[in-house]
TrEMBL record:
<dbReference type="Pfam" id="PF05191">
    <property type="entry name" value="ADK_lid"/>
</dbReference>
<feature type="binding site">
    <location>
        <position position="156"/>
    </location>
    <ligand>
        <name>AMP</name>
    </ligand>
</feature>
<feature type="region of interest" description="LID">
    <location>
        <begin position="122"/>
        <end position="159"/>
    </location>
</feature>
<comment type="similarity">
    <text>Belongs to the adenylate kinase family.</text>
</comment>
<feature type="region of interest" description="NMP">
    <location>
        <begin position="30"/>
        <end position="59"/>
    </location>
</feature>
<dbReference type="InterPro" id="IPR007862">
    <property type="entry name" value="Adenylate_kinase_lid-dom"/>
</dbReference>
<feature type="binding site">
    <location>
        <position position="92"/>
    </location>
    <ligand>
        <name>AMP</name>
    </ligand>
</feature>
<comment type="pathway">
    <text>Purine metabolism; AMP biosynthesis via salvage pathway; AMP from ADP: step 1/1.</text>
</comment>
<keyword id="KW-0067">ATP-binding</keyword>
<feature type="binding site">
    <location>
        <position position="36"/>
    </location>
    <ligand>
        <name>AMP</name>
    </ligand>
</feature>
<dbReference type="InterPro" id="IPR027417">
    <property type="entry name" value="P-loop_NTPase"/>
</dbReference>
<feature type="binding site">
    <location>
        <begin position="10"/>
        <end position="15"/>
    </location>
    <ligand>
        <name>ATP</name>
    </ligand>
</feature>
<dbReference type="InterPro" id="IPR006259">
    <property type="entry name" value="Adenyl_kin_sub"/>
</dbReference>
<feature type="binding site">
    <location>
        <begin position="85"/>
        <end position="88"/>
    </location>
    <ligand>
        <name>AMP</name>
    </ligand>
</feature>
<comment type="function">
    <text>Catalyzes the reversible transfer of the terminal phosphate group between ATP and AMP. Plays an important role in cellular energy homeostasis and in adenine nucleotide metabolism.</text>
</comment>
<keyword id="KW-0808">Transferase</keyword>
<comment type="subunit">
    <text>Monomer.</text>
</comment>
Length: 214
């Protein structure tokens, strides 16, 4: 099963990816997590990406497409994968079509901008696993600690309110056109497109996904 999770920053893509990975046993490919890992490791890609990400801008299509194609070619992606945060521009989506990488489901999480800003201010993350928490809506069992490892949770550098606003602008400009793009593919029978109300509680969204994909 090949799935794209589409939605604004903070719409819940990473949160539901964790659920879908467990439920369906397919790997999460989060371009954001991959870039943050490169930054932490201090690789040339990381050094280049850091400035762009901290400013809330998008990393170049060329770099991202290369990264994703390489990842999809790994053996653990043979039975499917979950794309989280990719594609984010029309050229990135075109690259998938041109490479004959067909997608079974495109799942859009619909969340208004005001809700996003509130979510980002309370987000805490465990970078090593990609697990995501919220201090109010999805708190860890022990404050500030990852449920499974007990590691300290951190605040993402790009979650400052000014950067979040910038990321939302870029989402509306460059990523939202993908809604029409994939609805068009769905009309041609090339994928299935589903829009979910992403403002519901985490468990409700997960239950809807389960029903949809079962
Ligand atoms: P990326 O890491 O992909 O960030 P994003 O798309 O902006 O999305 P987020 O991770 O912020 O949000 P999410 O939808 O995963 O929400 P989450 O589940 O965490 O990308 C970061 C940067 O990398 C980009 O800005 C760009 O620079 C670069 N980049 C990445 N991919 C790229 C690409 N393809 N091309 C170019 N550049 C790229 O949830 C958010 C919060 O809400 C959490 O606190 C969570 O606990 C809470 N929450 C989740 N669901 C609910 C719910 N139902 N109810 C209440 N709270 C909830
Ligand atoms: Zn995410």
């Amino acid at each position: 099963m090949r799935i794209i999770l589409l939605g604004a920053p903070g719409a819940g893509k990473g949160t539901q990816a964790q659920y879908l990975m467990q439920e369906f046993g397919i790997p999460q490919i989060s371009t954001g997590d991959m870039l943050r890992a490169a930054i932490k490791a201090g690789t040339p890609l990381g050094l280049e990406a850091k400035k762009v990400i901290d400013a809330g801008q998008l990393v170049s299509d060329e770099i991202i497409i290369g990264l994703v194609k390489e990842r999809i070619a790994q053996p653990d992606c043979q039975n499917g994968f979950l794309l989280d945060g990719f594609p984010r521009t029309i050229p990135q989506a075109d690259a998938m079509v041109e490479s004959n990488i067909n997608i079974d489901y495109v799942l859009e999480f619909d969340v208004p901008d005001e809700v996003i800003v509130e979510r980002m201010s309370g987000r805490r993350v465990h970078p090593a696993s990609g697990r995501v928490y919220h201090i109010v809506y999805n708190p860890p069992k022990e404050e500030g600690k990852d449920d499974q490892t007990g590691d300290e949770l951190i605040i993402r550098a790009d979650d400052e309110p000014e950067t979040v606003k910038k990321r939302l602008d870029i989402y509306h400009e460059q990523t939202e056109p993908l809604v029409a793009y994939y609805q068009g593919l769905a009309e041609q029978g090339k994928t299935q497109y589903h829009k979910l109300d992403g403002t519901q509680a985490v468990e409700k969204v997960s239950a809807q996904l389960k029903a949809l994909l079962a």
